Amino acid sequence: MIEIKNVSKSYNKTSNAVDNVDITINDGEIFGFLGPNGAGKTTTIKMITGIISPTQGDIKINGVSITENPLEAKKQFAYVPDSPDMFLRLKGIEYLNFMADVYNVPKNQRQNKIEELAKRFDMQSALSDQLQSYSHGMRQKIVVMGALIHDPEVWILDEPLTGLDPKSAFILKEMMREHTNSGKSVFFSTHVLDVAEKVCDRVAIINKGKILFCGTLAEMKEHFKTNESLEQMFLEMTENE
Q: Is residue 166 domain-shared with residue 66, that is, in the same domain?
């Protein structure tokens, strides 16, 4: 569970990049975070993951405050950033072992997890190669694998499907559903609205730092009294702003 309570972030003390956001991501749900470029999505994710601190408010991961107890809070989640271009001189297996070391995953346990993830993403033959030789999609897959190495309860994914081939994208969406079916939570940002429409249990739409809507697609259609797609409702909502 992720609890975002009255969170704002100001960089210049005159206007808020994120303005009084108050949403809860429940156990057992895939929660989509939608918004145009510059809407406040990445700033919000950076606050949830403890990369930056909120100007006001608090964020709790499974009841642990990211501001008051950051190390314990960070053990609760996996984070996949929007760019997979990191640690490029490491080999795939070195990167996965590094991530396992960060999260204190026991040697025997990590080996099984690496084999399971490598097989699922068809990466077995690439683990001995350097990340800098990988395609963008392969880098995206290895970063996802590294994030999941400690089997965290909460997944926080920033545009996770970008660059993935159709098969890998399908596998990741399948894994997201398996994860929430076991009572855990997935929070992911995306600009691909048809993916959000098919995958998410609930969505929040942010624009200019404010949450314009939070709920299910059915609730949004009821709110608009329409049978339009999520894409049409999203465009209407953000353009009106």
A: yes
